[in-house]
Amino acid sequence: MATHTSIADVGETLKKILQDGLNETFGNNEIAVTLDSPKKIEEDSQTRNKLLSIFLYKVLENPDLKNQPFRAPNLNDFQPPPLTLDLCYMITAYGTDETIKSRILGRAMQIMYDHPLLQGADLTGGLEGTAGQIKVSLNPLSQELIVQVWQALEASMRVSVFYLATPAVIDSTRKISTARVRERNLE
Question: Hey, which end of the chain has fewer CB within 10 Å, N or C?
Fold first, then answer.
């Protein structure tokens, strides 16, 4: 069952695969991966640290999976279809100079490219051990939208890449009970 923790679980899964890949390339704990916003990183004066921020900036309902049929877990109950979401992430590298930031960002993009479908052992948290799959793809935005995102964050604009992770699934807890038709009367 996909619970309300699915959004956080997708973020933690992305953080884990990025941290593992960066540790492989740059050494253990050389670069920290965080889910913090660029605004928080600036406020905490961490912009000189070697960091990779993977920030969830938008959540949308997936329009392609919206009209799924009701489920019937048993003969007398129906359950609405799950809520399926598209999660929009912004990945930003921090470091002491542009070369370090470019290397961190390039390696992060390589890791994401090598993991287009997260499933099985890749999944963490409540998704671990489930048959769930999360498709991760580069989500290029227009310059205008990028500027709007940074303005909304009220942070200094930096080079970033944008990704879409879909679907994050949250099952409904609502059940509709009904009695099955047992006899037919045509009078």
Answer: C
Residue-level pLDDT, tens digit, the chain, 187 residues: 578 889 999 999 999 999 999 999 998 889 999 999 999 999 998 878 899 999 999 999 998 877 776 666 666 677 677 888 999 999 999 998 999 999 999 999 999 999 999 988 888 888 887 778 999 999 999 999 999 999 999 999 999 999 999 998 887 777 776 766 677 778 7
3-state secondary structure the chain: CCCCCHHHHHHHHHHHHHHHHHHHHHCCCCCEEECCCHHHHHHCCCCCCCEEEEEEEEEEECHHHCCCCCEEEECCEEECCCEEEEEEEEEEEECCCHHHHHHHHHHHHHHHHHCCEEEHHHCCHHHCCCCCEEEEEECCCCHHHHHHHHHHHCCCCCCEEEEEEEEEEECCCCCEECCCCCCCCCC
6-65+82-171 CATH fold: STM4215-like (3.30.2000)
